[in-house]
């Protein structure tokens, strides 16, 4: 969406460009905030030690599929911002790759929540 599509766009456009060095910085900040919010929601599920590990991983996958399904039903089923950014930009834009691939607490937490070898998990 262009700033021209927003009523009163002149003030919005100058405010955005005064707050950021350009479109690229604005995009990276939006991406970082999106990842922070998404990761926070997922970590709450994964770090709930009241639940067995397998139930936490199952709850995470259920939450992701429910959210994707709802997005698709509302006409927003084009995938996740992080995944799309990684696939389309990260290979040629190291700064964006650093934001998209930054320290992933999700992977570390999934690994720690995963049942140990030999644990049935059921």
UniProtKB/TrEMBL annotation:
Protein name per its UniProtKB record: Uncharacterized protein
Top-level taxon: Bacteria
